[in-house]
Write a structure and sequence with these properties.
The chain is built from two helices and no strands. The protein has helices spanning about 5-45, 50-85. The protein has two domains: about 1-45; about 50-85. It is rod-shaped. By secondary structure, it is mainly alpha-helical.
Amino acid sequence: MTQINNPFLDELTRLMTDAAGAAQGVRREFEALLKAQLERMLRGMDVVQREEFEAVKEMAAKARAENETLTARVSALEAELAATKAG
């Protein structure tokens, strides 16, 4: 294969490679800026983070289970009280 040594093409290739690198840098910078802006907007809207949501969800499930247990105990005590009054 014949190799062509053309300074113009070499310079054009180098410029295109540099331009591609610069475009990637601009893209990364734009993504970081967009992410920061979205995070700022979400903080302003008082949106909870997933970890906080999951913790509260777990606490609610535990409270619901405890409530069901206490409801069953109260029902049993009321039945026992009614039986004591009737007897």
